[in-house]
Design brief:
With 115 residues, this protein is mainly beta. Helices cover 0% and strands 50% of the residues. The mean pLDDT is 92.
């Protein structure tokens, strides 16, 4: 059984930065595509950024130019650098494969951005 563990969330003011990190309980990242997702209460989980096994990246329109996803296959981690944060980025952030596997969801990490 694989479990993802997310960390790095917190409270920041608008315009601030945070770096999230995702670790897996065992090596599964390669060759899977990985993604960061986020969810706010009452809304569906949203894909924020994805990274392929070859390092190719893709971002949701709302975070393009502000967020950067990266992976370290040696450390078995996937990070999300978030800059120029906005109040609408407030959410619980999760990582998972693409497509997501229900059993892999972790607890997520809370990000709160104040105006």
């Amino acid at each position: 059984q694989v479990q993802f563990v997310e960390s790095g969330g917190g409270s920041v003011q608008s315009g601030g930065s945070l770096r999230l990190s995702c670790a897996a309980s065992r090596r599964i990242f390669t060759p899977f595509d990985m993604a960061w997702y986020r969810q706010v209460p009452g809304k569906q989980r949203e894909l924020v950024a994805r990274i392929g096994g070859n390092g190719a990246t893709n971002y949701g329109d709302s975070v393009k130019g502000r967020f950067t996803i990266s992976r370290d296959t040696a450390k078995n981690t996937v990070d999300l650098q978030m800059n120029s944060l906005k109040p609408e980025d407030t959410a619980v952030y999760y990582c998972n494969t693409i497509p997501s596997v229900p059993d892999y969801w972790g607890q997520g990490t809370q990000v709160f951005v104040s105006s």
